[in-house]
């Protein structure tokens, strides 16, 4: 039998197989369709498909009949094979009708069958026929079937989406899920996104949803279930095992195409071997069809390689997203159950775990899968290698073992070093988070510059900790690269000297061996690289698991009854309330009032809660008041609540009424407005039990009396609702209206009962209660003039850079290069070019060796080969060293400083216009990209570009006629990159921006955990987190899919070139040498990998540069406070005399906050600023501190106009401020918290301790630590202890600490001969009468008594040498003694 006849039989067998499989599987697919709901589809399309299918069935049946007639009814193998297609065509027609009318997407079964049939028909049509077909019927039938099935495939692929009768049945399907098999294989489903991105701007709301398998709510639930099923007690691998149980399904889905990829990859050496053999043995006896099958094989191998590689990486990307989403969900779930803490370090820990650790661990499934796959590749490679070089095959194995031992030794300290790096990152983020959270008081205190220096020093410590990890990376990278560089040279050298005759190498053996070795050393190299990465993830697992298993703590309360049954709460035998009572809890500072209220929370049911430290989530005023339950249809009740809480006047004054955004943490509202909005939220919820933790302290006297009467008076809302109210307060009007009063003191309950009974005890309770009833705050800032807030302003800023989003900005590279350092980049580029040359030229050197060394000594070629390998190894080590040891730390440090300077130097309005999560995202996610991804992507992109250039040069040197394809390839690359980059840049921008919402979600969850639990909003917060996470992953997933689309395009182009190489070799057989074919195919083997890496690293570079772009945009669009450059005179201020003359100031529009204010503040006296809410008191302080710009008038201190002076120096040198919201830095020492500027010398420690003693705080801080880890001190056993190691301060103690800090700063400045102005902004709002008297004595003794000018925002006169200034509507209306 001839070779052609055998080939035809093979095609018939394959055709019979896929027809039989189709017919056997058809009933199973049809069963599901019959149960499906019918859809509305265009009828003409159905008729066209049915007509084509039936026509093909008739044609194929006619050909079968004619064949039987020609054979006189004899049924042979050909007749059997021809009988199946007609039956399959009829079945296909029925299936098409059902699929089209009852499915929302094209049929995968139909697509698979049509593709198989078309490919089989193409081969049958192109094969040389073994004998003529009778009347041409066979060929006509095959051609007709090929054309008809091609038309059906086109109609099936591009059909319009079916409209189901149930409109809600298909809303959750993503474009990928609705697409056909071919569309998913070639990623053409993303073409609409490409078209949109090329022609227009892509908006976040236009992005399609994620597929069902990637929904964050699913990944969260799966991970939580796996974590709950962990073995107890937990071992060190409890979290890794739980994660493995969670992700095993997507891992298995990724493993299938990964195994197929191995099959196609190892088909390449066999293809190279047979191609070289075919060309080298130019004998007429070689059958012609062999060349045909080589071409077909090359198409199958290279196209299959492109499709399988894309599918494999796509599945791995889905696995990484799934893992990241699962870990974030698990961490967030823990934050919802964790105990509340006043320390900002809790925020930093959650943010660090969510961003850094979870991001690092998102690739753990990929690392595990790739390690197993690469290990399998190594084993297969050794089998193929043994067939080529015989007994020499163990040499690469020995080298692998040697390098692996070195890598193991180098990676031993890596987990500890990685933990140290992550811990340093967390310390930096804790300080940065505290800085951003307290930016307003920090600016008032003049501490932004010292805190910025501290954050930058922590950044330097982080870089130092990272350097140890990076050195480990350099060393194990050198070990891994040695394997890939020296193994081919040593193996071929040894084979040439010992395994061949006269040291000669044949092209077939040499190039096949090189191909196999590259496919052995590359996976072995990857294993050696992945293992350290996997080891390093242990640090992340340990940190997250430590966070997860940390005890959540329990309360000390017992709740009797349930909500709705006359709720009462009993704490250690003390009943707090029941049956609609109003209970007031009072006592001195630090007696445990707030702790008692917090103890009630978290015990079940829904509780209305208004915390002393107000928590407001993002949203409008109305949304915040109505809470997360919605409140739809309760407009009347909402109006009553607004009136009752005294908010109507404030809402009328706000820019957009109750539609005004509250801003991050309520920054866009005044202190009194925040308190009343939080109170309104508690009233609106209509809970049976309401807890009010000193929420009236932020209100002025008149507003407090009005709101108290509206809520707790005889006709108040709480009284009418029968609500049980437990409130903390020190005002006597609370006692008179309360049903019972509980007095705390000396660590317990001193007295309780009705106020009329307690008053009879007189002296016994005097020290535990205030002596007056008028203790209120007036720190409201008028907000009628606030500008529109973050959403609109960020949209405006983004619109300014929309053009750059779409088309890119080449100047961005120059911006980054300035931070990376020109010298560092020159070294990097030199090493990259050297690496490309020395890694590519050995292919051409091997060609010379195999073709020109016959009969000559091999020493010259062996020496050259080894020398090229050595130079390649040195160059790669140079790349790694210059990247991670020079470019990464230098650029990361400088960019962080630039970002820090821009943020801390911004006006206060910047923080009202931008969410805290958005800003913190820049210091976390963006800096992580700049640290870890950007330098590596830059060096990898540079290396791949140089390698690709060298590979093209060598390829054209081997087969110069391939240069004819260069213009076509260049045109394709130009068009593809133009389309790709326009869309990828926008998706990258949206990805980075959307991550900020996830940060905000975490921050809100941690900050407001008590309120969330009280109102039973846990499910709402979880839903918000999952929706924000999905919104952030939509652009990320599309960007990953877009990368796969680009990979497919480039791989298909490479497949066309590789197929062209083999086709030319077959057609020009006898005129092409085996060495030329070997060089070309080996270059194509690595060029394919180079293209893939280039695309991947290029995209990573683009994504990472987005972080740099955001920093540059922020720098360009954020005005800086620094403007004045005049020097402050030496010894100024010498008296501290303030003269304000005709000052008018506003918050940004035409309505002024201050109107023509003229005031004289003499030194040595206390000037008290009084007035109701919105009168301009705090605006006056902000104007003095140049935080509120003035439009007219002057402010002079000792005769110098302060508008000519730098703001930071003015606040640091001229003013001593004690704000109502004191700044505490739990991650720093007590010394740093007392003097963040670092101006206090060691010999002045007595001043710090004296300040703490005078404010009554020394006993609180001098108690010995309970944790033995805190017994190691630096210079002082108290001052150098970490602030978080002390017991938490109460609200009143926090204000006393602010006064102590002011005392320290005043002493430091007066010791230098300066006389600063002291500004006290409601520093007694949370204090009882005794605490207020204590502050009064400190102010008189430390400030007024030493001749300093003191300005106090307060509602009452403390006594002594006071001047009282009364303000109303932004004007000074009265001044008196």
From TrEMBL:
It is a multi-pass membrane protein. Residues 549-771, 1138-1377 form the ABC transporter domain. It is found in: Membrane. Its main location: membrane. Residues 259-536, 825-1102 form the ABC transmembrane type-1 domain. Keywords: ATP-binding, Membrane, Nucleotide-binding, Transmembrane, Transmembrane helix, Transport. PROSITE patterns: ABC_TM1F, ABC_TRANSPORTER_1, ABC_TRANSPORTER_2. One of its GO terms (molecular function) is ATP binding. This is ABC transporter type 1, transmembrane domain-containing protein. It comes from Schizothecium vesticola. The lineage of its organism: Eukaryota, Fungi, Dikarya, Ascomycota, Pezizomycotina.
